[in-house]
Amino acid sequence: METILVQVPGGPGASGPGASGPAADVHRLAPGDRLTFGRGAEVDVALDAPEVSRLAGEIVAADDFWLLSNFGHESSLVVENVEGGGEYVKVRPRRVAAPIPFEISRLAVPAAGRTIDLIVYAPQHTYAGAAGAAGAVPGAAGAGATTVSPFPLDESARYFQVLVALCEPRLRGESTVALPTLADIGDRLTLTRAAVGYHVGYLCEEKLRIRDRVNLPEARRLEWKREALVSMALRYDLVREEHLALLPARR
């Protein structure tokens, strides 16, 4: 059974997030199957760019994830999580069989002034079931104190809406856009700047327990708090793309 799909630019087939132009080829890989890419004649996927090595790399399907080897000598390969959050994996030159955990990935192969993008789908991810269910983790259930959440966030609370507004640019893939200021969030949520500042402080001190940088000037401390909140929220999936529905429509 194929567990990995690789969509490459050009050729007949389906269009999608990695297509370059109106159509793209799709390669289907079962566990153990390999797909090489580069500008050479002996590769499975030919990339027409003089900056790309003849054998640039290899994708290997491995159950519900995949492995990436970078056979080049000069440039790293970058694999981005297409589903947002700014996550990425950097595979350095000559690195072999780096595991890639994302369900939908953009593999960016660098060329002059651009990248050649391959989209890799790994839709068969396996998850442990609940206690007593098929696939449950042995020994996960039993007597004892209830496990407490390390991040006790109430998604119906106003502070969570402030956190979503802070993360909005990153969730929408706008990685180069500056984070919203307190005033920006106030305008977005019809709150005063002071109210937004209170919620940011509450998130830092009570909910996510982010340590303050008392040695920084006040303006820089506020900026650092916003950056730290967004980094932690996205790193641990506390805020996800579906939470954008909690925000009001843009005016």
TrEMBL record:
Organism expressing this protein natively: Virgisporangium ochraceum
Protein known as: FHA domain-containing protein
Stretches with biased composition (Gly residues): 10-19
InterPro entries on file: FHA_dom, SMAD_FHA_dom_sf
Keywords: Phosphoprotein
Region feature Disordered, mapped onto this chain: 1-23
SUPFAM superfamilies named among the record's database cross-references: SMAD/FHA domain
FHA domain mapped to chain residues: 35-78
